[in-house]
Amino acid sequence: MTAATERTSDPAERVWDPTRAFGLIEPPPLASATLIRDEFLRLDTARQQAGWAKAQVVVLDATGRTPVELPAPPAVRRPGELGDAGDGRARLVTRPATELGDTPPPAAVLLGEADGVLYWAQRVEPAEPAGDARWLSLFTVGGELAPLDAALLTTAIALLTWHDRARFCARDGSLTRPTKAGWARECAAENHEEFPRTDPAIICLVHDGADQVLLARQTTWPAGRMSVLAGFVEAGESLEACVAREIAEEVGVDVRDVGYLGSQAWPFPRSLMVGFQAVADPAQPIRLDGAEIAEARWLRRGDLVEALKRGDWGVPADDGQLLLPGRMSIARTMIESWVAAG
């Protein structure tokens, strides 16, 4: 099959070869399912009120930061790491819901339930947190959070960001108001309902079926910082077709044996990262798109082993040393899983 035929054939009809596949060694950090998302609870104001007395609130400032208590630092720590004492997890500092009043305020959104406790979120003005807590962003601390805290913060950022950007109806331009405990907005003119948007994006680890993987560097990244390829799904496009198109557009490489790996939320501002693997021929010339990608090259498993030991993007790079994505990203989990499979 020629390269041109490969690129224009239907990716969904290509045979996935499980002998070349690998799986994720653990769920991505922001893929936790520990938060109960109860649609009926969102409609039940009596249950919301009954649970308010022991409910907790995740507070975010205008930039998306929240108070976080970091673990005590170990005796030796690599640059960019937050710490590794106790269970090695950072913790959200939530507020008792009753500090906001006797009932849920209109600006609060219901995140869900865990261990019999309702969790809400609301924007606040930042104040000095108690103890050793610091106001930090999900980008800074996402890979260090316990599963429930990661789910709470990810959902809070996604929901509150949507509310900030959905104040007017997309149909008639009238003002909208929150309903269903923050999981919908209704326009004042015609009662049209709108719901939080999620934009799917593919992220794909391309390998040769043996010992090489294809990584790339965006034009805005410093030398040495590399990751797997990614791109947004277009209207009317399948995920598999997006994988083939994005990789062909960005680096000029044709892929086959596209297989699903996993997914995770990416609320920057409202994406869902859907992870795939695919096989390509390293002998095919790389053609950079000239816009988004500044560099792309095939690397061997040993190169990645050394880079993983070195740390991640938070570590200062010397002379363009290879640095891989941080622990919060599914890209890191995909790379670690491919290395482990070898």
UniProtKB/TrEMBL annotation:
Residues 196-321 form the Nudix hydrolase domain. One of its GO terms (molecular function) is RNA NAD-cap (NMN-forming) hydrolase activity. It catalyses: a 5'-end NAD(+)-phospho-ribonucleoside in mRNA + H2O = a 5'-end phospho-adenosine-phospho-ribonucleoside in mRNA + beta-nicotinamide D-ribonucleotide + 2 H(+). Its cofactor is Mg(2+); Zn(2+). The keyword Cell wall biogenesis/degradation does not apply. This is NAD(+) diphosphatase. Keywords: Hydrolase, Magnesium, Metal-binding, NAD. GO terms for cellular component: cytosol. Belongs to the Nudix hydrolase family. NudC subfamily. One of its GO terms (biological process) is NADP+ catabolic process. Its EC number is 3.6.1.22. The keyword Oxidoreductase does not apply.
